[in-house]
Structure formats: structure tokens, C-alpha cells
Amino acid sequence: MTARNAAGDGSTGGGSDPLRIAVTGAGGRMGREVIEAARARADVAVALAVNRTPTDPIAGVDVADAGHLADLLVDADPDVLVDFTGPESAAEYAETAAEAGVAVVTGTTGFDSGGTARLRAASEAVPLLKASNFARGVAALRRAVREAVAAVPGYDVELTETHHNGKRDAPSGTAKTLLDDVEGVREEVRGDPAGGDDRDRRVHGREGDAPREPNEIGVHARRAGDVTGEHEVLLAGNRETLALTHRAGDRGVFAAGALDAAAWLVDRDPDWYDFDDVLGDGVSE
Ligand SMILES: NC(=O)C1=CN([C@@H]2O[C@H](COP(=O)(O)OP(=O)(O)OC[C@H]3O[C@@H](n4cnc5c(N)ncnc54)[C@H](OP(=O)(O)O)[C@@H]3O)[C@@H](O)[C@H]2O)C=CC1
Ligand SMILES: O=C(O)C1=N[C@H](C(=O)O)C[C@H](O)C1
């Protein structure tokens, strides 16, 4: 990995060389967005773009065969690999990057425990940052949800996410992150992880004839049209409701966050990071 930043703080301003990124899944919705966003930034250069299947150049960037990633990383010498693919490939790409000493930013969702373990292992060799959502507004939503649940821990919680009809995984990675947040706060309020029958239980969808149990968290995934990504957390009780919602306008929101994360990650120590580490106490630009 070539250090591009004398400051060591991840910044690439001040006249230092642009951050060199490698993009996997270049032919995908997010891969294309990342390349276009990088091409519009002076502090980022696309050193390599690869895709599983043949793809025409994107924003003037040639796309190589992902099957040759290991050799291509040596030749291209990127600082960070930026991945938005599928769980089965993202883990493999992260391992390949780690072997090449290249840091990894992955936004891919839908990992099982095995895939997450492979990412964790890669983070022992290189800095690896994983986030289910790179929108700063979702980071703000997470903070608001944690505060709201702490204020009214006994209220019923129902989560609804809506995405385009091409999304494979359900519920979304962001939904799972928000559910972890809700359950973590409620366990903290209860004083210890609820090991008994009162522990939170995720109920995916709802049908049939049965009362809602107090410890349920309803989870609803909608797939329709070209919705970029919407997440609503509803809290209801005591004759009132509170709905906290984020709507992404376009995928540029995610690409901007991912590139900011890549610039922050470069030259960090090998470890496991998330987008909150990038944002620190504030989420604004
Ligand atoms: N963290 C965040 O902020 C965001 C995360 N995401 C996540 O990013 C991922 C990709 O989303 P999106 O770009 O819409 O998906 P697309 O289906 O549009 O693109 C997926 C890309 O990854 C490649 N790919 C998929 N599966 C494999 C595989 N098994 N092996 C090799 N390459 C593969 C595809 O290659 P090919 O062209 O050959 O099929 C394609 O280039 C999803 O997990 C999604 O949830 C999406 C938006 C924001
Ligand atoms: O697939 C998508 O499009 C998105 N996936 C991510 C997720 O699974 O949370 C993030 C965003 O909502 C868009």
C-alpha cells in the first residue's frame, strides 16, 4: 500500500497526491456511482475498476476482469479498495486486497456469519471499514432512534424499509443495523441482555390471527419501482406515535460517504472500522 498522506489523518488535501481507489462491482448500480463520484473529485483517482462480467468503460474508466484482481492490484497500486458487490464476492475481494496490503471499504450487505468472519480476518492485516449505509443522514437517524427508544423504551417498535425492485437481500442491511440499535438500547434499559422470554423478537411481516406481543419488533421490507432507499422506525404507545424516517435522494449520497470513508481510512492501522468512526461526534460535512 502506498502512503499518500503525510499527515496520516486520512486527509488528502494540502496538495498531496490524490487517493487512489480500486472499485469492485464497477458495473453495478453503486460501482458506477462510485466511479462517477470519484471522477468529479480532485482528491480521488480511480486506479482500477473491475467487474465479474464484461462491462463497457464507465465515465471513461476501463473495466477489467475481476477474476484477475490479485495481479491487477499489484500493477495498479491503489490505496483503498471500494466494494459494493454481493456478500459471496465481497469477502473474497477483501481477502485479496488484504493479501496485497490494500485497505478496504465495503458497503455490501447481506453477509452471513461466515462472510463477516472472513471480513474480520482481513481487518487483522489491513484497515477495513464496513457500513450498511454511507448516508450521513442515516448516521443521524441511528442517533435519533437510539435517543427515542431510550426515552420511551416501552413503546412498540415497527421498522419499514423500502427499496427498488432490483434489491436482492431483505431486510436491508440498514434495517438490520437499526434493529441492532433498538435492541441494544432496550437491553441497556432493562439492565442486562434479556435472556428470557422478554427478549426482543424480530417478526418479519405479519399475517394470520394473533395478538402482537410486547417484545416484538415488526420488520417490513417493501420492494417497488426505483426507490433508492427509505427507512422508517415507528414508535407507538400511550395514545401517540413517533415516526423517524430517512429517504435517500439518489445513490450519490452513498458514494460520497464511501469516498469520504476511503480518504479517512487510508494509512490507518489494520483494524475493523465503521462509518461512525469517520463521522466522530458530528455527522455534517
Ligand atoms: N452501504 C451503502 O451505503 C450501500 C450499500 N449497498 C449494497 O451494495 C451492494 C450492491 O448494490 P447494487 O450496486 O445496487 O447492486 P448491483 O446488482 O447493481 O451491482 C452488484 C455488482 O456486484 C457484482 N456482483 C454481484 N454479485 C457478485 C458475485 N457473486 N461475484 C462477483 N461480483 C458480483 C455485480 O457484477 P455483475 O455485473 O457481473 O453482475 C455488479 O457489478 C448490495 O449489497 C447493496 O445492499 C447499496 C447502496 C448503498
Ligand atoms: O441495495 C440498496 O440499494 C441499498 N442497500 C443498503 C442496505 O441494504 O441497507 C443501503 C441502502 O439502503 C441502499
UniProtKB/TrEMBL annotation:
Describe the task this protein carries out. Catalyzes the conversion of 4-hydroxy-tetrahydrodipicolinate (HTPA) to tetrahydrodipicolinate.
Name the species this protein comes from. Halorubrum rubrum
The EC designation for this entry is 1.17.1.8
Matching NCBIfam families: dapB
Whether Amino-acid biosynthesis counts among this entry's keywords is yes
- Give the matching PANTHER family: 4-HYDROXY-TETRAHYDRODIPICOLINATE REDUCTASE 1, CHLOROPLASTIC-RELATED, DIHYDRODIPICOLINATE REDUCTASE
* Basic and acidic residues composition-biased segments: 183-214
What is this protein's record name? 4-hydroxy-tetrahydrodipicolinate reductase
Q: Where in the cell is it found?
A: Cytoplasm
The first-level EC class reads: oxidoreductase
Q: So where does (S)-2,3,4,5-tetrahydrodipicolinate get bound?
A: 164, 173-174
Q: Which PROSITE patterns match?
A: DAPB
Sorted UniProt keywords: Amino-acid biosynthesis, Cytoplasm, Diaminopimelate biosynthesis, Lysine biosynthesis, NAD, NADP, Oxidoreductase
Q: Which pathway does the protein contribute to?
A: Amino-acid biosynthesis; L-lysine biosynthesis via DAP pathway; (S)-tetrahydrodipicolinate from L-aspartate: step 4/4
